[in-house]
User: What shape does this take?
Amino acid sequence: MKRLLIYILLVPLSASITGQNVLGYKADRIERYIKKNHDDLVREAKSTNDYYKYLKYTDGPSGTSTVYFFLSDNDRCIRVKRMYVHSMKDEVREELDKLYSKEGEDTWSDRRRGKGTIIKLVNEEWYFTVTIEPELKE
Assistant: This one.
């Protein structure tokens, strides 16, 4: 019961970052934003690889989501990818519907700040992802 109560309390907090468009933010600005607005997220500083430069955060012991902020060579955010447990899907869709313009099934756009951004929700077998990235010009 105690674990269920913690889960119920943390789920709304962890979903709220989905709507924040931090594309273009420098790494230190993302870190300040997370510390100020999402104390439920924990930085995974030891998570690295040879191909991508990123910041990784998890929601700690609740285990409902992980967020990656992919960075350019000059430490600017170029893509955000968040993975969630399936039980959060309705809540996340509702938040995306409120914050962005619906473009199609599981696709939204954000044209604030003068730049086009595409937001996509993709179902996987064990989780689903929300990706925020610049709109590609054709």
Remarks:
- Confidence is low (pLDDT under 50) at residues 1-18.
- The helical segments are 2-15, 27-37, 89-99.
- The first strand starts at residue 42 and ends at 43.
- Residues 2-15 form the longest helix (14 residues).
